[in-house]
């Protein structure tokens, strides 16, 4: 048994940056909101047919009503009817409004360069940290995108066309292979999870009929261009089935000419045209209409929600399109985070990561997976390929990425301790200069690329494993992966790249995840595993509090991993304590440190659970799975209570 002192029993954590309280509420506290004229002014989005209708009072139908200024979604003839209707309306009344970019301050509009950002959402009042301030049902959702991560995670398994989850039991990859779980829709034979997914409106209303009538099979499972076309097909289906949503979709911004200039979007659009007109035989949709709809889908897509990190577990491979949500601008240091609450219509919601002041532009990270954890030089091409803009947020403009040194490479000069940073961080061919004031070293981007490419090639043999489902059978492999990755990190950290280099952080994130799964599955873990997990967790908390400040889900995951490490170390400490307590007087110093660890652990657990509540209660959500998976068992909870009692007594005495 290892020496108890080897356990890191105490962790100081900073409260989430710019934190306030964590109350979540969906509606303003006041009884009603001010009214404003329902006239279309130049600072507002052009009114769709729906909004035109809303010039009628929602209570009496009288014309020339005025908008509720908080949300501008509904109108009333006057205060009396607004007050009367408040109970019904308050759940939909949100403190954001769309404004024309030209009405922003110079500083705000400078951050939003590019043609697509004609409108943005701004806060109409102060929004509290952790407040879920906006929610709407999505116009559309569908499987995809089929990017390299999706390919790696799906491992040849199909995705349910309705709920977009990977269907397990399909390939050798799954432990629980079971042909019975291989379900296909009984009408069109596309993959679905079960009868409920088969009969969901989303699948059965339109595409299932088109596929059955035209014998469109998913010939090669996971032939993703086909999957990706479902979004465009569903969008076109709205024209007949849901004219209101169809109008909302057509009103979304999309620079079609730009889309046609980029290789990835052109591929997507051309595939859509071919699939819909040739495979599905839907000649009623013209090439140009399909192109228009496909480019709207492409540029307004919210893809793959957050999941724990580099090649981590993806819960759904799904794309969502919202109406008001699609006005939210992107920032790599966003003030809000989005999540989708699965339901028949899938609701997309936004929560404030930090307190947001009235008038501030609402920003979010469009694609967590691709954007959050990589350096500016990786994010820029992704954002320009997928959303056709060059991000100018404070993180993108700062060579050190807010002092995290995410892309810093060790200066090759022998006597120098500094790191090379990109002179122009948004340019791929930038010159790199040393950050030491006494060193004049300059290197080219090719030289830096060689170093990063050599690290990437060393990381390749550590592919994504699905440890959460693999259980004990995979634990030997998990341990090997932890050891192998740790060796790599040690080899490159500080000698070739900065210890915070994004490639090393990605490797460490995998280590932390795998340590977590390891201790959850293996009874006799080595204390080193806990030590490793805790040291990585502390380091990442510091870095990600700068990159995803506030109550971000990344912070939630890190805290969760940290508390589970502490929990295990306390469990270990408690067992030796209870034994010794029977024999002799308890060592007060040890009690003190165990007690501190206990309270630290509870604090972290509490905060991570609060953060996870953003998606909380959602069946099959990643967060729910994590929480259930490692919920302390009853005997352990009694053990904690016991610990609390004896510690209190001994310390009080
Ligand atoms: C989801 S749409 C947002 C729609 C747009 N804001 C509008 O006017 O309705 C994405 C597009 O907004 C623009 N955009 C979003 N965030 C931006 C940013 N930080 N800087 C520049 N353009 C941005 C890009 O053109 C991108 O293609």
From TrEMBL:
SUPFAM superfamilies in the record, alphabetically?
Answer: HIT/MYND zinc finger-like (SSF144232), SET domain (SSF82199)
Keywords of the record, alphabetical order, are:
Metal-binding, Zinc, Zinc-finger
Q: Which residues form the SET domain?
A: 102-367
Question: InterPro entries of this UniProt entry?
Answer: SET_dom, SET_dom_sf, SET_SmydA-8, Znf_MYND
Where does the record place the MYND-type domain?
Answer: 57-93
Q: Which PROSITE patterns match?
A: SET, ZF_MYND_1, ZF_MYND_2
Q: Does the keyword Metal-binding apply?
A: yes
- Its recorded name reads Protein msta
Species this protein is from: Orchesella dallaii
């Amino acid at each position: 048994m290892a020496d108890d002192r080897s356990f890191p029993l105490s962790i100081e954590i900073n409260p989430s940056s710019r934190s306030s309280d964590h109350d979540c509420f969906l509606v303003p506290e006041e009884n009603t909101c001010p009214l404003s004229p329902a006239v279309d002014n130049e600072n507002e989005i052009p009114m769709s047919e729906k909004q035109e209708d809303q010039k009628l009072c929602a209570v009496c139908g009288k014309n020339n009503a005025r908008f509720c200024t908080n949300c501008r979604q509904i109108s009333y003839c006057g205060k009396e009817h607004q007050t009367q209707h408040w109970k019904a309306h308050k759940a939909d009344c949100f403190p954001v409004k769309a404004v024309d970019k030209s009405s922003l301050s110079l500083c705000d509009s400078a951050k939003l360069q590019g043609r697509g950002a004609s409108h943005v959402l701004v806060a109409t009042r102060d929004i509290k940290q952790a407040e879920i301030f906006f929610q709407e049902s999505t116009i559309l959702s569908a499987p995809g995108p089929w990017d390299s991560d999706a390919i790696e995670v799906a491992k040849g398994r199909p995705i349910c066309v309705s709920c977009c989850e990977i269907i397990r039991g399909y390939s050798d990859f799954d432990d629980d292979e079971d042909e019975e779980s291989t379900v296909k829709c009984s009408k069109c034979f596309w993959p679905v999870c079960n009868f409920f997914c088969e009969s969901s409106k989303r699948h059965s209303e339109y595409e299932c009929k088109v596929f059955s009538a035209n014998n469109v099979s998913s010939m090669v499972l996971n032939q993703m261009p086909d999957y990706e076309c479902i979004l465009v097909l569903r969008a076109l289906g709205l024209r007949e089935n849901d004219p209101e949503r169809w109008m909302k979709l057509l009103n979304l911004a999309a620079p079609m000419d730009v889309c046609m200039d980029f290789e990835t979007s052109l591929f997507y659009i051309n595939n859509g045209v071919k699939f819909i007109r040739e495979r599905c035989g839907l000649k009623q949709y013209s090439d140009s209409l399909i192109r228009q709809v496909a480019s709207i889908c492409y540029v307004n897509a919210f893809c793959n929600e957050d999941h724990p990190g580099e090649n981590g577990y993806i819960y759904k491979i799904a794309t969502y399109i919202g109406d008001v949500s699609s006005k939210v601008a992107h920032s790599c240091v966003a003030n809000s985070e989005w999540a989708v609450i699965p339901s028949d219509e899938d609701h997309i919601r936004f929560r404030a990561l930090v307190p947001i002041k009235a008038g501030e532009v609402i920003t979010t990270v469009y694609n967590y997976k691709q954007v959050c954890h990589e350096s500016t030089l990786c994010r820029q091409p992704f954002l320009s390929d997928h959303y056709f803009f060059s991000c100018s947020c404070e993180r993108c403009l700062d060579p050190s990425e807010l002092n995290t040194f995410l892309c810093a490479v060790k200066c090759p000069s022998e006597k120098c301790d500094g790191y090379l940073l990109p002179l122009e961080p948004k340019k791929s061919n930038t010159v790199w200069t040393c950050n030491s004031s006494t060193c004049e070293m300059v290197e080219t981007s090719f030289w830096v690329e060689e170093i990063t490419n050599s690290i990437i090639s060393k990381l390749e043999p550590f592919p994504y494993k699905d440890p959460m489902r693999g259980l004990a059978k995979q634990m030997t492999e998990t341990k090997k992966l932890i050891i192998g990755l740790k060796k790599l990190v040690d080899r490159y950290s500080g000698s070739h790249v900065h210890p915070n280099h994004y490639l090393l952080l990605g490797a460490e994130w995998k280590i932390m995840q795998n340590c977590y799964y390891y201790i959850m599955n293996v009874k006799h873990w080595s204390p080193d595993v806990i030590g490793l997990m805790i040291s990585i967790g502390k380091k990442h908390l510091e870095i990600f509090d700068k990159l995803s400040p506030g109550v971000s889900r990344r912070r939630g995951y890190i805290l969760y991993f940290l508390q589970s490490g502490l929990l295990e170390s306390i469990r270990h400490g408690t067992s030796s304590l209870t034994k010794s307590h029977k024999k002799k007087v308890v060592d007060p110093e040890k009690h003190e440190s165990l007690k501190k660890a206990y309270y630290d652990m509870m604090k972290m657990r509490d905060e991570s659970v609060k953060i996870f509540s953003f998606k909380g209660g959602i069946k099959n959500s990643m967060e729910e799975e994590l929480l259930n998976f490692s919920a302390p068992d009853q005997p352990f909870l009694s053990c904690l209570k016991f610990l609390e009692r004896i510690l209190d007594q001994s310390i009080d005495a």
